[in-house]
Design brief:
Helix content is 51%, strand content 11%. The protein is an alpha+beta fold. It folds into three domains: 13-152; 168-403, no CATH class; 406-462, no CATH class. Strands 1-4-8-9-7-6-5 form a seven-stranded antiparallel β-sheet, with helices on both faces. Helix 8 packs antiparallel against helix 11. The chain is globular and about 70 Å long.
């Protein structure tokens, strides 16, 4: 369980510290040095715990070169604060922002003086999740500009198919937590298995550094992935992109497709019961509570979301083992999974050509999804299944248009880079460009343009 002794129902204790009441004297100094300039504690921490945390932060700040950290994150170095009153032996985790733009050990780039204010606000919101989530304990600003975020230490291990597998109960508990996170208006956005810790059938969430707060209606215009009018922004998308899809592939590789499809069918049924149904109820209440505040267009949009959530709940609960539903939902996940890989790959490498084969795979999955749905629509189906298929067809067409547009734009960019005297260019490059256009960025042409070293080198120079 999370070692945590705090609740959300009390006001936080905040304050500023001057050198006279929070100075720290090192052995080498003959004068007091101010360390902590500002602080905030959750009000349920005891006065002893607050003092212990302050002392540990001060000690680390003065002796950072000799204190062994737990590890290095994207925004700060992480330390363990042990034996804190009321928090057990492992107590808390202290994250301290970097003072150097390059890690002296790994040589990797670091963000200096990162401000944790957004993460702090998100963590305060998710305290309602209790033991299913990392909890906010305190934050501080040091006199030298470093920022501190202190959270509860979360017990558990990463899910692992061989060593620490998830079961039906832990998967259901995870979905309950994610649905609650939706209703709190928080998107985690980084639900990879490193940020999910499993203990006693509970899958716990940690690291809210990428999380954002959102409003059901306004979020759609800001999110880079976009949504169709009847879809609701949800943590399930990130969970499926970065955890469910890779876990499904692991099961398929180790135990075969039958076991993998069984796992996915169980997941779909739980998703229908625990997420779509609950989101439909939540949205219905949201609509009722805000009816006098919403425009006619917004009322229509939320109503479409409610109808779609109820439809998906019905379909996934009743037909989770149906081959039609399984095939469609697996293809949808494949599209999102490969798109997510391409997105992260582009950030990591910085060259769009490195992602072109992944984007092409996502496009082909979207086209396969569209063809599969059209095939099923030709068969006799229950009215609710036909309605489900028509919604999924809209999603498939939307993904085809979006991914295809991105890829066509990239090929146009490649042609522009080579342009003017393309007839005099290297014949192999010319062939790749022509094939990309002729085949609409699929199959062999995509594979070759991504692997063509001389072409990538040329575009790297232009970038």
């Amino acid at each position: 369980m999370i070692l945590n002794a705090i609740k959300l129902n009390k006001i936080n204790f905040t304050g500023k510290i001057n050198s006279s009441n929070i100075s720290f004297k090192s052995k080498e100094d003959s004068f007091d040095k101010p360390i902590v300039k500002e602080f905030e504690f959750d009000s349920d921490l005891s006065s002893v715990a607050k003092k212990q945390l302050l002392n540990q932060v001060k000690y680390i700040a003065q002796n950072q070169d000799i204190v062994t950290p737990l590890g290095y994150g994207a925004t700060g170095v992480v330390y363990m604060a042990q034996d804190i009153d009321g928090l057990g032996k492992n107590g808390a985790v202290i994250k301290m922002s970097y003072t150097q733009d390059k890690n002296p050990i790994t040589g990797e780039k670091q963000k200096v003086g990162f401000d944790y204010d957004n993460e702090i606000q998100v963590l305060k919101k998710v305290k309602a999740l209790g033991d299913s989530s990392q909890q906010y304990l305190a934050s501080m600003k040091l006199a030298d500009g470093r920022n501190i975020l202190i959270t509860s230490f979360v017990e558990g291990k990463e899910p692992d198919l061989a060593l620490n597998p998830i079961n039906k109960k832990s998967l259901e508990n995870a979905l309950i937590t994610l649905q609650k996170l939706d209703t709190l208006g928080v998107l985690h956005r980084d639900l990879k298995k490193e940020n999910l810790l499993l203990e006693n059938d509970t899958l716990k969430l940690i690291d809210f550094g990428e999380a954002v707060e959102f409003d059901i209606l306004n979020f759609k215009e800001k999110d880079e992935r976009n949504f169709l009018p009847f879809e609701m922004p949800t943590n399930l998308q990130s969970f499926e992109d970065t955890f469910v899809s890779p876990y499904y592939l692991e099961i398929s590789k180790k135990y075969g497709d039958i076991e993998a499809r069984k796992f996915f069918g169980d997941y779909l049924k739980a998703k229908g019961e625990l997420v779509y149904k609950q989101n439909a109820i939540f949205l219905s209440q949201y609509l009722q509570d805000n009816l006098d505040k919403l425009t006619k267009k917004q009322i229509q949009e939320v109503s479409k979301m409610v109808q779609y959530q109820f439809l998906m709940s019905d379909i996934l609960t009743r037909f989770s083992s149906n081959d039609i539903v399984l095939d469609i939902e697996l293809l949808k996940n494949q599209i999102l999974y490969t798109s997510e890989l391409a997105y992260k790959n582009e950030i990591l490498i910085g060259n769009p050509l490195a992602n072109i084969s992944l984007k092409a795979e996502a496009l082909m999955s979207a086209k396969k999804l569209e063809a599969t749905i059209l095939k099923y629509l030709k068969r006799p189906n229950r009215p609710e299944v036909r309605k489900y298929l028509n919604h999924q067809l809209d999603i498939a067409k939307y993904r085809c248009t979006k991914i295809g547009g991105w890829l066509n734009g990239l090929v146009g960019w490649v042609v522009t880079c080579l342009n003017e005297d393309i007839e005099t260019k290297d014949e192999s490059k010319k062939k790749i460009i022509e094939e990309c256009i002729a085949l609409n960025l699929e199959d062999f042409a995509i594979e070759n343009i991504a692997k063509n070293v001389s072409l990538e080198g040329r575009l790297d120079e232009i970038i």
